[in-house]
Write a structure and sequence with these properties.
binds iron/sulfur cluster; iron; eight-stranded parallel beta sheet; Sulfite Reductase Hemoprotein, domain 1; TIM Barrel; 20% strand; 4 iron, 4 sulfur cluster binding; elongated; metal-binding; 2 domains; five-stranded mixed beta sheet; alpha/beta
């Protein structure tokens, strides 16, 4: 896959853009006043594989979250700030790794300059996060609504305010709850600038629908080589966002790990393949081996249909088969099928 080459930025030791691996982001959703709860969730997200973590900084008191989280984890931390430029300055002073702020929303040029200068001095990139629900009135009127062109124009407007002060360590996001508008907006931006792009569908929905929209929106852009870092937004535990993001990257071969294939079952299936496939997926969730594992419902067609898989199982009528590249290597009792598969994978 040819990726669009963007500027390379450093966010607390994690590179974004310039061909760096696509990083996975998420955001804490514990109330900002609860320091202990935020630290606990940050640790959970780090364990789950989150690579860049955002925290809302709604007031001065919440700036204390920054040292508390940074002390407890090693994930680069992003401060999410709306309107109050002093919170950006305080966050930089508190050791934040990146700021998410829209310069057009913080008032006078002096304030924008103060934020740009502080971020430059400390090597802190800024993400401009444009959202279909909060576009500037003039831009909405010009484009007749939150279109892709409107999203892109708004992002470029905010970026120009930082460029005025020679600040270019910028990441852009142009999120829309409409997948088609989001895809088009990012494509437009990738044609007119070389800033790294943070991909996401905003207000994507509950776990199932949010994952579908994100897989289509984020996935189609990544497939076209557009995008440098991603966040799957779900109305769910943010740990689920990490699993979803990893699955999207794995499905596109942008992250190594197990690729699982399993058949849809049919009238020839004589084992509880749905439960077996779920168990295999769960037990391989942390496996980093770059292999394809097949879980097939019948011995007659399974090994042949999944001959591309490095290893697989097929079952039925009390006996299970283990096969490699379509060739049967072992027969095992059906109740030992998953354990035997795991032993084989261990030995690979
Ligand atoms: S592998 Fe066997 S059980 Fe599964 S769909 Fe194909 S024929 Fe049916």
């Amino acid at each position: 896959m040819n990726r669009k080459l963007t500027r390379k930025l450093n966010v607390g030791g994690v590179a974004i853009g310039g061909g760096s691996p696509i990083s996975i982001q998420s955001m804490l959703n514990v109330p900002a006043a609860d320091v202990v709860g935020n630290v606990r969730q940050a640790r959970e997200l780090e364990t789950a594989g989150c690579e860049i973590l955002r925290v809302a900084i709604p007031n001065r008191q919440s700036v204390r979250l920054i040292p508390a989280i940074k002390e407890a984890t090693t994930i680069p931390l992003v401060a999410d700030i709306h309107f109050d430029y002093r919170l950006a300055l305080d966050s930089v002073a508190a050791g934040i790794d990146k700021i998410r702020i829209n310069p057009g929303n913080i008032g006078s040029d002096d304030r924008v300059k103060a934020v740009a200068d502080a971020c430059r001095l400390h090597g802190v990139p800024i993400r401009i996060g444009v959202n279909s629900g909060s576009l500037e009135k003039e831009i909405l009127a010009k484009h007749g609504g939150p279109t892709a062109e409107a999203l892109c124009e708004s992002a470029m407007y905010h970026a120009s305010l930082l460029e005025k002060y020679d600040f270019n360590d910028i990441v852009l996001s142009m999120k829309s709850s409409r997948v088609d508008a989001m895809i088009e907006a990012y494509e437009l931006a990738s044609q007119v600038c070389d800033y790294p792009l943070h991909l996401g569908v905003t207000e994507a929905g509950t776990e199932r629908m949010g994952l579908i929209k994100s897989a289509i929106g984020i996935g189609s852009l990544l497939q076209r080589g557009v995008g440098d870092t991603i966040r799957v937004s779900l109305t769910a535990d943010p740990v689920r966002e990490i699993a979803a993001a990893m699955d999207i990257l794995r499905a596109l071969n942008l992250r190594s790990g197990v690729q699982m294939v399993s058949c849809p079952t049919c009238g020839r299936t004589n084992i509880d393949l749905i439960a077996i496939a779920d168990e295999v997926e769960r037990r391989l969730a942390c496996c980093k081996k770059p292999i394809t594992v097949a879980v097939m419902g019948c011995a007659v067609n399974g090994p042949g249909e999944a001959r591309e898989a490095d290893i697989g199982i097929a079952g039925g009528n009390g006996v299970g088969l283990i096969f490699r590249k379509g060739e049967i290597v072992r027969r095992v009792p059906e109740d030992r099928l998953v354990d035997s598969l795991m032993e084989e994978i261990e030995s690979l």
